Amino acid sequence: MGAAYRDRRTAGAALADRLWAYAGRPEAVVLGLVRGGVPVAAEVATRLGIPLDVLVVRKLGVPWAPEVAFGALGPHGVRVLNDDIADRLEPQQIAEVTRKEEAERSRREERYRAGRPPLDLAGRVTVIVDDGLATGATARAAVVVARRLGAERIVLAAPVGSADACAGLASVADEVVCPVCANEFGAVSRYYHDFHQVTDDEVGTILARTGSGDRASEP
Q1: Which of 181, 140, 142, 176 shows the shortest CA–CA distance to 156?
Q2: pTM of the predicted model, to two decimals?
Q3: Is the predicted pLDDT of residue 81 greater than 90, yes or no?
Q4: Are 56 and 74 in contact (CB under 8 A)?
Q5: Taking the domain 8-56+119-210, which CATH number applies?
Q6: Helix pair 200-210, 91-112: axis angle to 10 deg
């Protein structure tokens, strides 16, 4: 199939159309998964008129094929493993990748949350947004984190995803919204004309422009 979206912004616009039930709701917040999910989430938040913040979750990739996730890490010590893949790895391999990715996750957490209080999702309707769902490991970790932070309802939203990932996430999130859900999925990048690597500076610019975090972090 051809690319479904021109770029992450147009994907966010299409996703917002599927999330209109949450427009303007004072208890709702959009969380973009760093980094690729942030431009998508920013468009969703803007169109729905609800605040944007970020959630730093880091994929754990197979050493010889980093694009294949065997799990993911999130704040507060959350680690989610995809047992079908993780069981094929040696404990030392898992430990080494985990150590490396936790260091990077901590670096990003410090950068993106600098000067802002930690997320407080108690009583919030939390819309978690990524740019695509391949294995769903990162999104699953994000759902676990949001639950621990007290989210009342969790909506997992992505413009594209594999059928297996969407089905698996439906068992942990309250709602999964994915306009393009494919049985033969491949890579997320095939669904975008422009799928450039999102930089720290780009995320910082989006957060500064949207003034995110003010309402999402309120107690």
Answers
A1: 176
A2: 0.86
A3: no
A4: yes
A5: 3.40.50.2020
A6: 40
